[in-house]
Amino acid sequence: MSPLVVSVLVTLAIQALASMAVFAPPVFAPEASRDLAIGAAAAGISTAIMYASAVVSALASGGFIARFGPMRVSQASLALAGAGMLSMALGHLATVAIGALLVGLGYGFVTPASSAILNERTPARWRALVFSVKQTGVPVGGALAGALVPTLMVLGGWRGACVGTGAACFVLMVMVQPFRADADGGANATARLGRIRLREPMRLVWSSRGLRDMALASFTYSGMQMCLGSYLVVCLHDVAGASVSAAGAALSVAMAGGIIGRIGWGVVADRFVTPRHMLGLLGVGMSLAAFTVPLLGSQWPWLVILVFSFVFGATAVGWNGVYLSQVALVAPPGRTAEATGASLAMTYLGVVVTPLVIWSINALGLGYGAGFVAVGGLSLWRATAFFRR
Asked: Are 372 and 231 within 8 A, CB to CB?
């Protein structure tokens, strides 16, 4: 098996399991909320803690990767995620919050480390496809959480689901050890972590027009992705009159569209259009889908709603691989991990902030559809930047 294929499989597995740890709390939240005497909506607070801490670790990732190597940092990511899940299993509000913090810190390291591994091993003609395949780990992780966490809950309750997910992270951490020697050959053991400044990666991004376009687009695109995952079900249930199970099936179709899109758009960007134009087209597509949300209603045929969900997922979830390949391409030589980490900090900020736009607009009585239109306007604004010379 070629080194590139091995690298893709290893980084894909790490991305999927780390993502599963992030997606697991919303799945067991209804049961956990009863034990913790809080509302199930508090799962949103857990997600906010995760992504807020991921911003910090993503910004700091460049220095850690330079010193310890991307595979060792990936192993540390899995260890943090595993420890976070075990902390949640203790079943107290404080330990759940600490667990969310640890999972987020680990998650922020994952993508910069995997980008550093793949960037050195991927030929230019396969760059967008390879990065897209690796990034399918995010929706795959969501699918794993949806499929496995309920089973673990049957066996051991929500605490058992935490323990099982955490144990899987530690097992994979050990399994990838044989690949460390090759991946971490360029590590600099003399790098001084104490002098890391979080502002330096952001200066790198804002000093480059190409990286700046990537960062701003990721803020709006990732926000749209999280809004799709957070609000599609409630929109279909409240507006289109779908049952919860049917609306959940539509969300699954959207995630399937995201998985197929992440690979398919990578092929298109490698063969037929430039990555920048591909990112622009995806931004236009997700914006048009968002503008369609207010039109949803019970009169829509269910097959049409499923097709709409697939297209929405293919655009709003399928952009990441092309995006990361472009960040790696325009980053200064030797600073791929640092540039990726800073760009992802903007990604995670979008995940935390943008869904609040829909929540706020809906709280004002204007409905979820108006919120999607507002978020679609933001993504369309950034999409147009990719068509400028």
From this structure: yes
